[in-house]
Automatic annotation (TrEMBL):
Specifically methylates the N7 position of a guanine in 16S rRNA. Keywords: Cytoplasm, Methyltransferase, rRNA processing, S-adenosyl-L-methionine, Transferase. Pfam families: GidB. The lineage of its organism: Bacteria, Pseudomonadati, Deferribacterota, Deferribacteres, Deferribacterales. This is Ribosomal RNA small subunit methyltransferase G. It is found in: Cytoplasm. S-adenosyl-L-methionine binds at G66, F71, S117, E118, R131.
């Protein structure tokens, strides 16, 4: 079903299929979703749907913070081989799985870092992705040290993100960040919250 949303090459589809197989056969339980159709809808499509309309958000060095099982970072790295992705997670077992996956899939545009985001030094990203890791206020605090001056955050949220944004109002004002929400109700239910500097918010449009 994902072929309706993007012009995948055969190689891309094979890599995503292999990634699904790796998840199903992993000794480490990275996802409760084992059914193939659900995996493709709730993990794969969810990872990239926003960027079928807003590809321009993916720019420069891209960090996937708290990547877990490799979503959205691995899927986007397969789809956009011209971009470079850094997958960050504090759980060593997950990172070892991802390192094996990157090697097995033959991805040359991905690096994996085992660390808490706030402990990373000397790294800056132009795009920060985070899927279901922490509330908006916490994510800003955890990743501000990783943000380049023109950084855009894409946070994968639920329909109740308004409450999180209200709670984050103080830090949004302090850091001069603006946001928009892009909501999908079908074929997935997802709100993508996109943050950007008030002084450079062209990427929000």
């Amino acid at each position: 079903m994902i072929k309706s949303y993007f012009e995948f090459t055969d190689e891309m589809l094979e890599r995503i299929e292999k990634f699904y197989d790796m998840h199903i056969n992993a000794t480490l339980n990275l996802t409760a979703i084992k059914d193939k159709d659900s995996f493709y809808t709730k993990h794969v499509l969810d990872s990239f749907l926003l960027f079928t309309e807003k590809k321009h958000l993916l720019k420069g060095k891209i960090g996937d913070i708290g990547t877990g099982g490799g979503f959205p970072g691995v899927i986007l790295a397969v789809m956009y081989p011209e971009l470079n992705f850094t997958l960050v997670d504090s759980v060593a077992k997950k990172c070892r799985f991802l390192e094996d996956a990157v090697k097995e899939l033959g991805l040359t545009n991905v690096e994996v870092i085992t660390s808490r985001s706030e402990d990373i030094k000397n790294r800056k990203f132009s795009t920060i992705l985070s899927r279901g890791v922490a509330k908006v206020e916490q994510m800003i605090k955890y990743t501000m040290n990783l943000a380049d001056k023109d950084c855009v955050w894409v946070l994968y949220k639920g329909e109740n993100v308004k409450d999180e944004l209200a709670a984050a109002q103080s830090i949004l004002e302090k850091k001069r960040l603006e946001f928009i929400n892009v909501r999908y109700d079908t074929p997935i239910q997802r709100t993508y919250t996109i943050l950007s500097s008030s002084a450079d918010n062209d990427r929000l449009r």
